[in-house]
Amino acid sequence: HIAELGSDVTDLEVGDRVVLNPGVPCGRCEYCLRGEDSLCIDYKILGEHLPGTYAERVAVAAKNALKIPTDLAFETAAAAPLAFMTAWRMLVTRAAIRPGEDVLILGAGAGIATASIQIAKLAGCTVYVTSSSDEKLQRAKELGADVLVNYKTMPWSKAIWELTGRRGVDVIVDHVGEATFKDSVRTLRKGGRILVPGATTGPMLELDARYLFWRQLSVLGSTMANQREFEEVMKLVFMGRLKPVVDRVFPLDQAREAHEYLTRGEQFGKVVLSIA
Ligand SMILES: [Zn+2]
Question: How far away, in angstroms, is 38 Cα from ligand 1 center?
Fold first, then answer.
């Protein structure tokens, strides 16, 4: 809820239910002037570079607060911005995915993956996912994934290669990093794009330059989103066409337990702290 407003805020009222864009750009650099918030030379994220929302109150600029529909729970809305903003910019703006393309999303249980599956599906793509857990693959299927690959059963790169008739996929979302990047590169079709929104297993990616030039691949990094992309993707969340996946909700005073739960890696989607 909005608790207090600055004197020049006109489009919000005390008591409004809102969701926050956690990105805080400087508003003055060359990238901000182009509307590219997440390229800002002084880009900050609530909870990473600024005091965040593990708190009962947080102060933000009015434009960071977006009113949510009355039927949308706070816990669901809170699970959306980081994952959906990042996935939206990455797939729609950076990769410019098109209907009919094959999109492979690694690690089906991650927040970025649950968002990417739904966005790629909404764009009319065929969605491939990998996981070591049949249960997570089943959940991914419920979100719209078309082809499920359990990499405990077979090497995923080989499986995808065969499943695509030895063509490879058009686009890969690889947020895993060191452990998977080499195989990702080999699983792309000629002219394919590999998207890197993070690297959870380590940042040093192995890239054979011969694949890069001969197969004319594109490696696209992506981070967060600008204000327009935030509002675009949240509109689809508000319409119910994209559904944030909440794995578990902990009360704020159990933040420690929530982190311990996260380190076990059993979650599918987001773990949310509830501020009653
Ligand atoms: Zn800036």
Answer: 8
